[in-house]
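Reviewers of the previous submission asked for a worked example of the structure-prediction workflow described in the proposal, so we include one complete record here. The input consisted solely of the amino acid sequence. No template or homolog information was supplied to the procedure at any stage.
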Amino acid sequence: MDGTKRVRTSGASRFALLVLLILPVPLIAQTPFQTPYPIPARTPEARSDIGEGWFLKDKVIPRQASPAPYPDTLILVGTYETPGKAQDVWVEYPLAYLASDYLGVEVIDVSDPTNPVLINTIDTPGQAFDLMAQDTLVYVADDYSGFQISNSTGIVGGYDTPRISRGIFVQDSFAYVADYDSLLIFNVADPTTPQLVGTFASLSSGAEIEAVFVRGSYAYFADGYAIYIVDVSNPSLPQYAGQYSDSVYWFIPYNIYVVNNLAYVANYFNELFIIDVSDPANPFRVSFAYPPTGYAWDVKVMGNHAYVANWDGGLWAVDVSDPANPQTAAIYDTPDLCGGVFADSDYIYVADHYSLLIFERTPNGIAESHPLSRTGRLRLMQNSPNPFDALTTIPYEIPVLSHVSMRVHDSAGRLIKELVNKETEPGTHSVSWDGRDLSGNEAPSGVYFCRLSSRSQTESRKMILLR
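From that input alone, the workflow returned the following structure tokens.
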């Protein structure tokens, strides 16, 4: 039985038991579903009809999702078909990393989003379930084989955790691993020999931690019952800081993304929850949104939009510019089962079971859809001159005070030079690159990628060095 099936089967069983214990028998008979909690369909031909309604604790009411037509359109610009089962995706431009279950990690060149090209497959010992890339390394939650660390060519290190690794997040030199019923913290300063430094066990009985996200001094993990907030300011001594569960709505958190003191939660039973976590001891629900159909499986936030991998409901874009009133912006019914999503300022990348799909979101009625034309966003302009032989200037704009980094990578994703790494005032700035690497040596002629990043946004541009 593969890792994906184990998660869905156990989740469905747990939820069905809760329904039987909590809901009165007449209510179960009145639901519009064939079962209180049908297991997701595994093929497009047998998709679930769970979108007909949604549960409160004591009644079922019709869905009230934003009606079509929606204000935006999701445009499919590129596709890569995989022989594996695409579970998750992470992009460190110009490379996309696809967690492809038993196949391992597929490394895909997305510098031309209309023509993504496979450049390598890394055969992990287990089943690649979740991943995150940082600089030139990829950290993989590898199911029964713990977690693995690789570069774009092969595995460099790993750790065989005690249970089943289903989620991973990296911040600074620490990796946070969701290992079935515990959050494990590793020092990965030396990626060849990760060192376990801290452990925090879920407080939910029978919990299965599926996802973890870290922002600053706090780690947030979803265990299917609640969102737990853990103080990791001292990674060797993680401390309980708070938790969120819901007493009104069925709350089965499966994935989480935190930005600006708001946690965006993919609630497996359809909704996107928005939770205020500014006070970790007292988190509260701000709002929630729900699509016409699907199971909220993964979520990423970029700018004013949350992007939800909505399983058999496809890719769901939600306008969260007003967190108290989120609205569906666009939906794209993907060909297969949408399980993972990644968003940067240019594109949305979707792990769609047997494909990597690349989308643009276009406001309806606006001809030019490139995100650089939108206001209030991080903006990286084209370097000049380009091509260049000795010196080029790179202009960029910052909308608000932010910690900004600008790095130059080669076409294989290797870090060549760091040009900016500091708090930057809002406004227009520029920096020059003399074509030299970290050691002061002249970089060879070729294609390079300049990557500008703030806390929640990223822009990339192609530069050509001709000596």
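The longest helix spans residues 3-22. We consider this example representative of the routine output the project will generate in years two and three.
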